[in-house]
Amino acid sequence: MTNAETLALPAGSPPAHRWSPVLAVALATFAVVSSEMMPVGLLTPMSHSLGVSDGTTGLSLTITGLIAAVLSPLTPVLVGLRDRRAVLIASVLLLGLANAVTALAPDFAVLAVGRILLGAAMGIVWGLAASLGPRLADGPKIALAMTLIFSGVSIASVLGVPLGTYLAALLDWRAVFWALALLGAVCAAVLGATLPALPVTERGRLAGLTDALRNRGVAAGTAVTALVVLGHFAGYTYVRPVLETDAGLSSGAVATCLLVYGLAGVVGNFTLGPLSGRRPRTAVAIALSGVTLAVLLLPLATGGVVAVLLTLVVWGASYGGVSVSTQTWVRTADPTRIEASAAVWAGVFNASIALGSLAGGQIVDRAGNHAVLVTAAGLTAAGLLVTALTRPGGGSVS
């Protein structure tokens, strides 16, 4: 049995032209990604304050990603028949609590507790948000709805991480996480005011997850997702040390570079998002090609600020389209199991964040900044190869 019934639009859903519920979910993804990725911009001050290495502080992303990776694919099963609106609101409230714990952390152990709570919130949001486009829009507007939902990811890079970096420079890194705690409360209020009821009519099953992976297109899409996200986070988690040590940039200049990267990511999301609705394989190939090229070029570009900025523009624009294009690949491959395949995709995505940041930390501590970028490029290049050899419409494994 498929999950097609689960995704039927409930009576009283908003018409396709009403975009406030879609934008509310985009705010949730923005809050989640800002919270998840904030240690990237604050890696150095957090490490100094907690008395640990950059590689250890980078584990804060690994912890969050591992928890989210476990919960994301299990979310449809764990939440059962509960209204998805209520579940999303509860998850962003948990996100606020997680950031408050992080802000209060006196040492890495308490910080880890906060990041575990954040991983739980993130896993639930990602386990549901990726499947909501078809429930909040219809027909040709689904691609735009998905683009808007995933715009929260790239906008978090534009506003979340760079503004957090600036705020930390003015105050301290703990103030940033207090701001994120407040954002969680605001996000819950917005979701409560705009989202319609999102009931389900069929309980999620573990077998539905394995059924989704039996589809060759879904399996290929998740493999591509794993490789590009592994590579990206192996390198990007430690981009601040690269820019500070190799390029000799100040903390203010690093914040500017991250802002430029994020702006490029928004452009990439809104460029590759609509393209992925028509040609998902092409959109994925473009995204992975750009990430691979940029990661390879960054060690060579550290001799000048302009070269660094141009490389980060390519990296940001390319990675900005990864989430929406790979998720569209998976959704296109098996449209009868949208929630199950989206949950699997989200689990793989988050597991890859965790493993990528973990591997990157080990490589940085043992072999240095250039080695981690070369490794990252190799992983994304492998994802590009899988993209070239497969397609979304792969059918089921017999």
Characterize the structure shown.
Helix content is 80%, strand content 0%. Helix 3 runs antiparallel to helix 4. It has a single domain, classed as Growth Hormone, Chain: A (Up-down Bundle), CATH 1.20.1250.20. It has 398 residues and is mainly alpha-helical. The protein starts with 19 loop residues before the first helix and ends in a 9-residue tail after the last helix. The relative contact order is 0.17.
Q: What is the topology?
A:
Layout: H1 20-50, H2 54-78, H3 84-104, H4 108-129, H5 133-136, H6 142-170, H7 173-194, H8 206-213, H9 216-236, H10 239-246, H11 251-278, H12 280-301, H13 305-319, H14 322-333, H15 338-367, H16 369-389
Helix pairs in contact: 1-2, 1-3, 1-4, 1-6, 1-7, 2-4, 2-15, 3-4, 3-7, 4-15, 6-7, 6-11, 8-15, 9-14, 9-15, 9-16, 11-12, 11-13, 11-14, 12-13, 12-14, 12-16, 15-16
Poorly predicted ranges (pLDDT <50, ≥5 residues)? 1-17
Mean pLDDT, nearest integer? Answer: 83
End-to-end separation: 16 Å
The biggest beta sheet reads: none
Helix and strand string, N-terminal first?
HHHHHHHHHHHHHHHH
CATH architecture: Up-down Bundle
What structural class do the secondary elements suggest? mainly alpha
Shape: globular
Counted beta strands: 0
Corresponding CATH superfamily: MFS general substrate transporter like domains
Percentage beta strand: under 5%
* Number of alpha- plus pi-helical segments: 16
Helix content: over 70%
Rg (C-alpha, Å): 19 Å
CATH fold assignment: Growth Hormone, Chain: A
Compute the number of structural domains. Answer: 1
* CATH class designation: Mainly Alpha
